[in-house]
Each structure stands twice: as C-alpha cells, then as structure tokens.
Write a structure and sequence with these properties.
This is Peptidase S15. By secondary structure, the chain is an alpha+beta fold. Among the domains are: 176 residues, Jelly Rolls, CATH 2.60.120.260; 118 residues. The protein is 15% helix and 38% strand. The chain has 11 helices and 33 strands. The two termini are 24 Å apart.
Length: 673
C-alpha cells in the first residue's frame, strides 16, 4: 500500500524539439543556503537569459533529480525553459546530490530552504524577479505551504495531487482513522533517503562521507507520526486550511479521481481568496500530460498559460476560465486497471456551484430495526491502493467481495442517468458496544448483473465524530450522531444501474483496525448526494499532450509487478502480497544505472484485529563502470490493545561489502480515541 516509483510508462504525446528560445542545461548548479549547506539544482534556461531575463519555475523535492524524478523532469522542465523560463529542480537537503540532513516532511528547515532558493533565484541576473513554484504530491504540498509564507518573489503556484490539511487529508489519518499508508510511506522514505549522491557530482573523495553521514542520521518517520494521533499543533503547522487567506500567490490546483488527494481542488477553489482555478481529470497520481487513465491533457500548455499570466503579465485568458473543471467518468466494468475512462469534461464558472443540488435518500426508514454492522477484519481487500501510482493493478476491483462483508443499502434501479459531482455525505445514528469503533462507507455503482464499481468512499473513527483535535470515547450502547464525508467524485450512473451504500466497521488494509472487534447498531442513515444536471457532452476542451524529448535510457532489467491475496485455510489468516520490481535502467547521457524493488505483505485474521501486521522490504541499487552501491531497508508494524510497535532496519553495501547497518524499534502508546 506504499507509494512506489512508477513502472516506466511511455506517454502518448507529441515530442517538441524546437522551442522559441534555445535551452542550456546545468546538471549541478550549487545553491548555498545561509547556514552554508549546498543544495544541488538541475537548471534549464534560455541560452540568452543573461541578456533577456526570465521568470523562474521551482520544484523542490527529496526524490532525487539525477535518477528519481528524471523521467518526468525531462518531459517538463526543458519545455518550460524553451518557452522563456528558468526551470529549477532542487534536491532537498539530505537527499539526492544535496548536502545536509532531513528529519521530517515539510519541516521548518525545508520550507525555509525553499524560501531561500526563491530569494536566490529572484536575485540572479538571468531572472526577471518573478518566481513560480510547482509540484506533485510532496512538491504540491510544499509549494502551497511556501506560498502561505509569502516570499516576496513568489507570484504563482501550480499544485498537483496535494492537500490543505496534513492530518485529515494526507497519508496519515483519514477521518481520524490511522491510514496504513502512514507506515507504508515512512518505509518508502527510509529507502528513498538511504541512497548516496552521485560520485560524478559529489566527487570521488566526498560522496561516501556524505552518504555515511546521511545514513547515520537517517530518521524512520513512522514513530514520529504515530506519536501525534490527534490533530494537534504538529499537524496544524503546514496545513494551509488553518488560514487560507495567507496564500496570496495565484493557485492552479490539479488532481485525479483515481488519486488519494482528490478533495484539495474543491477546498482550494472554495476557500482561496487569491486567484484560483481547479482541474480534476480521471487520473492516478501523475502529472496530467502523461497520466492515465486517458484522456491525458496538454498540461504543459495549460501551465504556460498560468505562468505567462502571473509571471510575465501576459493576458492569456486564465482569469476567465471556469473556477472548476472536472471530468465526469462513465460507468465501467470493475477492473484493477483502466487504461482509459470514457466521459466528458464539465465546467462550473463558480465553485461551489449553484447548479449542484443535494438529493436526500433515507437509507433506514423510520421505525425499522437497526442494521447490525460487525464486519470481518479482512473487509476492504477490494479497495485498491490509497493513491494508485504504477499504471498497474492498483485500482479498486469488483466490490462484491467487500459488499458481502458489509451492510448494504441498495436503491431502486435508476430510470434515467444521473451525474454525481461533489462530495457525498452519509449522516448516521449508531451505537457501539466498544469505546472505540471505525466506520467505512462506500458508494457503489451496481450493474444489472450485480457487478459493483466503487464510486467513492469515506471513513471515520467514531471517537472523532465531533473533533479530530479533542476526540471523545464512545459510551458502549449509547447512540451518537456522526457525519461521514466521502471523497469528491464525478461519475455518471446510467439508467438501469442502482446505487449501493455499503457500510462496514473494518477497511483493511486501507485503515488500521480498532483494538477490539466492535458491533455497531445503525438506527438511522441518510445519504446526501450532490447531483448536477446531466451534461450533454464536453463543455470545455484541452489541447493534446506534448512534452520535451523523453529520458534516454537502456533497460538493464525489465520491470514487473505482482499482487496476490492468499487465504490460509488452516489458520484463517488472509495475506495481501505485493511485489513491484521497477526494473533497472541506465542513463545514456551520464551512465548511472539505477534499480528498485519494493515488497510488501499485509496480514490479518478476520476475527482478530490484533493480528494485523504490515511488512515492507525495499532494495535500491546504483552502479556505473564497476562502482556499485545497494541499500536494503525493511520495516514491520503491529499492535496490541495498548501500543503500536514498529521496527525497521537499514543495510548499506558498497559493492558486496556491508558498510553500514542500523536497527530501529519503538513502542508508541495507542490512543483509544
């Protein structure tokens, strides 16, 4: 369930090789921070920028520009440079080819470094003084957080697959429930940050010292995140929803319906006072010029419209664009992967839109007996990844296996199609027989033959029903009211299909289970469904995707991805096993070969929430001309009724010689609320 580097996906796009301005590249431009730490930047800019200064576009990441994000960087940054920008891709301190150490995501040091890079860039003779910041995921998060700090030169932001709330809408605690991705992502970063700089850039006599210092100070972030189980000051810092008005830069927010961060676009379009526009397509966790499912869009042309307006002062018409542009997906047969989603683009000039009306559907008629929700702990295996990433079998599958383990409220077959656009909600009244209980609600499209496709879902830790900051334990058998907000969606349900609302109190391995099996008596449930007048066809359009010349590599080892669910008929345990071998490729320009393999197992017994465990094992390799390094990182998480227990290990090899090893283990008290 971790975020993994994509299997190399060759996009169907037009390759542009001739640009209005000739581009020069600097593979390792040093930017020295006020404390003396040297950050390494890969920079593309017009050859004549010294005579005709240009704005800057900054992407500030821990994901290694030399061999990590290089695939997408090659498509994107030279394109911007060719159209009159200095495009700067910085390795954050403690990662890639930069010096220093990183101790957490979105730290004060990280955000201050970004502000210092912006100030440095704006002061260069080749810059016109205006800076934009962009990014996806981590880079989408930090560009919003940096914008809230209002560095003077920062005029515009393009934030993709990001969040405004670090606690409730990131990979940590969704609805107050502990996301498995919290542990999974910590495991991923332990592996990502364990790799050394490239000796060709850092120097033959220096790279090893930088690497060993980095390894000796490596942080396993899972224990830190588990120590903040409520929405306290740790999570509020960096959550721009605390003060939307702090963002003064113009914001273009983009996301995908098959991504875990699909709510941010609506939050920003609703709350930002600065110029803001939103676009949501059918995509997974990718930049939309090479994303899937298709249709991809001409993101780079759309981005240039944004940059040209706010960084160059050119009237490109972006201010007249609809506030919210969304792709309404057609119903499809359930599958773990869709290369394409049919549908249509719709446009709302204002957001929230007065065109969207809420239909209220009573799921439990007054006077009916309560519905008993007591799901096996293995309910949820059809849910897919939190944010699908690999152009592979990570989407939600047919929901019928999970539906069979849930309480389902099926609606009559539709006599005419409906377009759902927005965030469905379910209002409940329920009593629990335990002090803590989770609830998961799924909205499904049920085909005439019974196939069940997931439209949207939401989860809630019922002790957080009134507040994520100050939870309240449940009183056993006492009825409480709660509101479960499902993720934003845009989906057409055709005539002849029916809606299903499936309710469970387990959703593995999306969320960590409650410490005890719980029973919920659901006495009332109401679905609030946001409906838009049926779209007749595309209401807006985008240019076709294009990009600069793709990354030139040769394949050393082909990629392969596997996913299995195994049920031990003797013990009853259920195990989800995932292996993503991302293969190994060699850069044809500088010769560095890099390879990566991620392995995960998620195990649980249907009757025992304390049987839950997650294990990860990552292998990373780098090599060139007889030089090679390898890191092996492994981690495990389990819990009892009182504590979470997390362990991890790093092993680092130069050639076949073990040069570093370190073990982590920590027990963190478990909040029952």
């Amino acid at each position: 369930m971790t975020q993994r580097r994509a299997l190399h996906h060759v996009p169907a796009m037009k390759t542009v090789t001739e640009f209005p301005r000739k581009v020069v590249e600097f593979p390792d431009m040093g930017i020295v921070m006020p404390d003396g730490c040297r950050l390494s930047a890969r920079v593309w800019m017009p050859e004549d920028a010294g005579d005709d200064p240009v704005p800057v576009i900054l992407e500030h990441l821990p994901y290694r520009k030399r061999d990590g994000t290089i695939f997408r960087d090659q498509l994107t940054h030279p394109y911007f440079a060719g159209h009159g920008y200095a495009s700067i891709r910085v390795d954050m301190r403690g990662n890639g080819d930069s010096e220093g150490l990183m101790d957490d995501e979105y730290s004060e040091q990280e955000l201050q470094d970004a502000c210092d890079v912006i100030a440095w860039a704006a002061s260069q003779l080749w810059c016109n003084g205006n800076v934009g910041m962009m990014g996806i995921s981590w880079g989408g998060f930090n560009c919003l957080q940096v914008a809230a700090r209002q560095p003077p030169a920062l005029k515009a932001v393009i934030s993709i697959c990001s969040t405004v709330d670090r606690y409730a809408d990131d990979i940590h605690y969704k609805g107050g429930c502990l996301l498995i991705e919290n542990f999974g992502w910590a495991s991923t970063m332990l592996s990502y940050s364990s790799r050394p700089p490239d000796p060709l850039l850092a120097g033959d006599n220096r790279w090893r010292d930088l690497w060993l210092t980095r390894l000796e100070n490596q942080t396993f972030l899972a224990p830190l995140w588990l120590k903040h189980q409520h929405r306290d000051a740790y999570w509020k810092r960096g959550s721009i929803c605390e003060d939307f008005s702090a963002v003064k830069a113009a914001v273009l927010s983009i996301g995908g319906w098959h991504d875990g961060y699909r709510n941010t676009i609506s939050h920003l379009a609703t709350n930002i006072e600065a110029p803001v526009k939103g676009i949501v397509g059918p995509w997974i966790h990718k930049y939309p010029h090479y994303a899937a499912p298709k249709p991809a869009i001409g993101f780079l042309q759309e981005a240039l419209r944004w940059w040209d307006r706010w960084l160059k002062g050119i009237d490109t018409g972006v201010e007249a664009d609809p506030a919210y542009r969304a792709y309404v997906m057609d119903s499809v047969r359930p599958a773990r992967w869709h290369p394409e989603r049919s549908g249509r683009w719709v446009a709302e000039q204002e957001w929230p839109s007065s065109d969207i009306k809420t239909q209220t559907i009573e799921l439990i008629p007054e006077g009916n007996r309560p519905a008993i929700v007591a799901s096996p702990q293995s309910c949820g295996l059809a849910g897919g990844e939190y944010f699908p990433f690999t152009f592979g079998p990570e989407l939600p599958g047919d929901q019928r296996p999970d539906d069979a383990l849930s309480v389902c409220f099926d609606q009559p077959a539709l006599t005419e199609a409906i377009d759902i656009l927005g965030a469905p909600e379910v209002l409940i009244r329920a009593a629990s027989d335990r002090r803590q209980a989770n609830i998961a609600v799924r909205l499904c499209d049920v085909h005439p033959d019974g196939a069940s496709e997931l439209i949207s879902y939401g989860v809630l830790n019922l002790t957080h029903r009134n507040s994520h900051e100050f939870p309240q334990a449940l009183v056993p058998d006492e009825t409480v009211s709660a509101r479960i907000v499902l993720d934003q969606c845009a989906y057409r349900v055709p005539a002849g299909h029916r809606l299903r609302i499936a309710v469970s109190n387990a959703y593995w391995p999306m969320i960590w289970p409650s410490p005890e099996p719980a029973r919920l008596d659901l006495s009332a449930a109401t679905l609030m469904l946001p409906l838009r007048p049926l779209a007749k066809g595309d209401e807006i359009s985008f240019l076709a995707p294009e990009g600069a010349s793709p990354w030139a590599t040769e394949t050393v080892r082909p990629a392969n991805s596997e996913r299995h669910v195994d049920r031990d008929e003797k013990t009853g345990t259920v195990t989800l096993s995932i292996t993503d071998d991302f293969g190994e490729v060699r850069d044809l320009a500088h010769g560095l070969a890099n390879g990566s393999i991620a392995r995960e197992t998620w195990t649980i017994h249907p009757d025992d929430p304390l049987s839950a465990s997650g294990k990860t094992h990552w292998t990373q390799t780098l090599s060139r001309n007889g030089w090679s390094v390898r890191t092996e990182t492994s981690a495990e998480m389990r819990s009892d009724a009182q504590n979470f227990v997390v362990t991890a290990r790093i092993e680092a090899y130069e050639g076949e010689i073990l040069v570093f090893e370190r073990d982590f283990e920590e027990k963190i008290p478990r909040s029952l609320v």
